[in-house]
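Example 3.2
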Amino acid sequence: MGFKSFLRKLFKREQTVVRQSNNQSNNFASVIGDNNIVEQNVTMTVPSLLLKMNNFVDSFKTNGIAYVTFPMFDEIKHQILEEPYQLIQFLGLSGLGKSRMMFEIFKEEDNAHNYYCSNASDERLLNDLSIFLRKRKDEVGIIVLDDCNADAFSRISKLRSEIDTSYKIIGIYNDTEGLVQQYGVNHLILHRRDLIESVNQYIEEQIGLMGSQAESVVEQIQNLSDGFPVVAIKAIQSYREKGVTSLMNEDELWKRMCGYQNIDNDARIALQSLSLFEPLGYEQEFTDDYELVKYNKSITPLENYSNQRIDDIFENLVNTYIQKELIEKNSCWLLVRPLPLAVWLVGQWFRSCGQGRLVQLLNDLDAIQNIGQANRMKRALCKRIKNMQDNEKAKFLFERLMAKGAPFHYEEVVCSDFGSRLFLAISTVNPVAVMNCLFDVIMPQSIDWAKNIIKGDVRRNYIWCLEKLSMPETTFRKATLLLAKFSLAENESWANNATGQLLQLFHVALAGTETTLRQRLDVIEELLKLGDEYTPIILKVIDSAFSYSHFSRNAGYEHIDGKIYKDFEPTGVDIYEYWEGCIKIINRLLQSKPDIVNQIADIIVSHVYDLSLRSGCYDLLEKLINIVVKVRGNKWPEMHKQLLKLRKYNQDRLSTERKAKIDGWLRQFSAKDFLLALEETHAAFYAENREHSFEDKMTHAVEYFTPIAKRFQDERLYSDSELVLRLLDNQTNEIAFIRATSNVLTKQQVKEFFGVIVKIIATKDPDYQSSFLNILYFSLPDSEAKESFLQSIYRLKKFQQYIVLKANTETQDLSVLKEVVGLIQKEQLSPKKTLRQYLYRVAIDTVERMFEICDYIRMNVADCDDILLDYIIAHEYSSIILEEPMETLTKELLLGYDCKKSTVDAYSVKSVVKNILESGDEMAFAVAYNQKLLRVIHDYESFRVNDQLYFTLLPKYQKYILLDILKEMSNKQSDFWYFGGKDLGSGDGFGAGPLFQCNIDTIKDVCLQESQGCLPYRLAYLAPVFDYSDKDEPSFSKFFYWLLEHFENFKEQENILSEFSSNMGSYSWVGSIIPLLEKKIACLKKLEHNTNPLVKKWVDESILSLSEQLRMEQNAESYRKLC
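Structure, written as C-alpha cells:
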C-alpha cells in the first residue's frame, strides 16, 4: 500500500461523542472521549484531512533509510518551531525530501497541538480549517499542510488573517515559482544546490556500508542524484537489489519532479527535445544549436506553428525550468537535470519517434555545414543515447536500423565519423544489434581494407566499442574476432590500439570480459581456422594467456544493456585447464609450422616465473620445455639464463625438489657450453653469499671460482678459439673467474692463451679492445709472455688496445704519454680517441700530476683543447680541477669553448660553469663569462646551450656585470637581445626573472638615461607582470607603474605598452586560465582613469580583448565540464 493510500485509509470519517454548549451555534465541539459524561448527543464529523502530528510521525515509514541531513536543516527547523512567523510557505522541488524533513523536525517534539495534512490542495480543507481554528483560538500549535499549491495557500493565508488564532501554518509545495506574496507570509525555499554536498556524502557512506570499493559506482550515483535525496536513495536501492542504478521506469517520480501533468503537450514536446542533447548550446556563438532544436521537425515535431510561437513555447519553458532548477544554464549551455529525469524525458521522445524520423534527424545533424556545431550536436546526442539502456523503444529502433538492408547496415555508414560515434553510443543500449551489424560489414573485408579505410578517430571509436562488446558473453566471440582483424591491420601505436585490447581479453584475471577461460580457448581455436595470416596474432594471444601477474584494467564494472557485467574470476583449476589448452594449440602450431619454434621458445622463456614460482605449474613448464627441445634440441641459452635467475634469486622460496628439477634443466642446457656453466657458478656463488658484504664476497670469490677455472685449464679451453672469442667479446665479465684463471694457468698455458688471443685480435678492427683482456692482463703477474703479448699487439697495430694495457704502467717522466703522442704523430692516429684511452686509465694522485699531463699534451698535440676540456668535465665533481694550477687551465678552456666548433657536450660545459660560479666569489670569471655570453649569443643554438646561466650570474654578480648587460640591451641592433636577452625576464609572465632580482634603482637610472631608445620598452617586456607582495589585491608590478609615471619621458611610448602586452600574454598555465584572465582585467581596470590618452586607449582595448577571451574560455570550460 502506498504512503498516500495508507493516509487516506487512516483518515476516513468516524462518528464521535461530543459535548455541545447551549450558547454555541456552530456544529463543532471539542473531542472529549468515549468515557466522558455528555449532556447532549449529536452526530458530528471531525476534520478528516487533518491528522495529529504524532500519528503522522508514527505512520511515516523511513524503511530503515538514514536521513540525508544538510547544513540548512537546523535553520529550517528553527524557523518552523521557534520563529514567531504565523505563515510559512516552504517550497522546493519534488524529490528534495520536504516530507521526510517534517518527520525529522517533529519526531522528537511534544506535538500535543501539532497537526499534519497530506493533501492541502483538497478543496474541503478550507472549511475544515475554518472550523478547527475558530474552535481552538486559545491553543498554540503548528499545522503542516503538504502538497499545498499556491492557490490553496493563498486562500488559507487569507482565512488565517480573518481568524484570531495562535496556530502557525506551514504550506509545503514543489513549485518554486508559486510564491504567495501576501502580508505576513514568510518564505522558505529549498534549492538543490543546498543539498548536493550532503547527498554526495550520504552516497559515499551508503556505498561504503554495502562493502563496495567501487569509486565509479559512488561517482555514478552522485551524478545521477544531482543533489536530490530521493533520487540518491532510489539509485542506491536499485544498485543494492539489482546491481544497477537504473531509474528509467520511475514514471511517477519524474512526472512529479518536472510537473509533467501540469504542462501542455507543446511544452512536453519542447522539454523532451531539450533533453535530447547533453549539453545544448543556448546563447552567444552557440545559439545555432538551440535554434536547430527548436525549428527542426525531426527533433521537435511542432507542426504548423510559426517560429514566433515556437520561440514563446521554448522560452517560457526554459525560464520556468531554470527557476525550478530542472534546467541548468551554465555559461551559454543548457542542461536538463537531474540526469535520470533527462533520460526519462528522452525516453518519452523515443516513444513518439519512428524509424524514419530518427534517420532524418541523424541525416540532418550530419548535414550541418559548421564543423564545430556538427561535432557538438553529434557528441551531445551520442552522450544522451548512451544513457538509454533501459528504454525498450530505443533498443527496438536501433535494432531495426542495424538489421540487414537497414540504413546502418552499410559500409558507408560504418566508415563515417558520425557512424562510428553512433555505434559506440548505441553499443551500451543494444550491444547485440551493434555487434551483429559491425561483424557483418567489417569481418568479410580484407586486412588491407581494415588498415586503410578505418583509421583515426573512426578506428578509435570502434576499438572502444569492441572493448565494451567484449565484456558480455553474448557478444564476446564476434568482438574478439573483429579485434583480431584490427590487430592484423594495426595502424595505432598509442594506448587505444586493437592489439592491446585484444591481448588483455586473454589474461587470466582483469581481462575485461565475463566469458570463461574455456570460451576464450574456443575463440583461439576459431582464429586458427582463419588462415596463416592470423598466426602472429595467435602467438601474441597465447603469450598473453600465460601471464600470471601485474594485471591492471582502467575500468570498473561495465554497465551495458541495463545490466552490470563483471570480470570472470577463475579458479586454479580453470587456469590450469586454460594453460593445458594453450599447450595443445602450441603443439598443433608446431606440427604445421615448425619454423615458428623460436618465437614459441621466446614466449616460454618470458613466462618461466609465471609457470613456476608464481603459479606452481612446474609440470606445464616441463611440457613446454620438452616441446621446444624436441624441435630444436638442447641449445637454448635464453632458457638457461632465465632458469639461472629463478634459481639464484629465489633460494628461500624453492623446495628441495624444485631446486633439483631446475638444476636438472640447467645441466641439460649447459652440458656442452662452458659460458653457461660459468653463469651457473656465478648464480650459485651470489645466491649463497647474499648476506655477506662486498668485501667478504670478494675474499671468497676467487676461491669459489677456482674449480671452474681448473676446468678451463684441464680441458685446455684456453686454446679453444671459439670459446676465447666469446670470452673476449663478452660485455659482462666475472672478475673472480679471471683472477682465478690467472692463478691456475702455468706460464706455458698463459703463453698459449695469449697466442690464441693474438690470432683473434688480428682479425679485429684497429680500434678493438676487450674488457676481459684488460682484466686478465692486469691480473697476471709480470712475465715474458705478457711483454711478448704486448709487443704482438703493437706489431698488429692494434694501438687502442695497446694504449689501454700500457697506460697503467706510466712512469714519473711520462714515458708512456710520450710514446702515445709519438704514435699519434707517426701513425696518424686520432688524437681524441687515442688520448682518451690514455687519460681515462692513467693514475692521477695529485693536482700537479694532472696539470703536468695536461700541459704536456697542450704543448705537443695540436688542437687539443676539446680533449682536455672533456677530460676536465669528467672530473666535474672533484675539487682537483679548481685547485691551482688546474683552476687557471679549467677557466681558460671554458672561456675559449665554442659550442659550434667543439665536440664537447655543451650542457656539460654549462654545468661546470654553474658549479664554479656558485662555489665562491668568482668575480673575474663572472665578468669574463658575461662578456663571452654578450658576444657569442647571436642565434637560437647559442642561446639554447647557455639557457638559464643568468639565473646563476644574477643577482650574485650584479655589481660587476649589470651595467654591461643593460648597455647591450640598449643597442637596437643587438643579437644578444633577440636570442638571449629575453631569458633575463620573467619568461612565463610570473615572478621576477634574474634581471629584476637586481637593484631596481640602478635599472631605473639607466632606463631614464636611455629614455629615447629601446631600453624602456625592452624592460617593459622583461618586467614582472604582477606585484606578488599583495596577494589579496591584484595589481601590476611596481616597475610597470613606474614606467607609466614617467611615461612622458619616453620616446617609444606605444612600444612600451605593446611590449608589456606581449609580456602579459606570455605564460605557461596548468588548470583553468579563467582566474588569470580575471586578474589581468582587474589590474587593467585600475588604470581606466589614467589621463594619458594613449594609455587610456590601450587599457580600454586590452580590457575589451581580454573580456572576450574570458567569455570564450568560460564557455569552453563550462562545455568541458558538462561533457
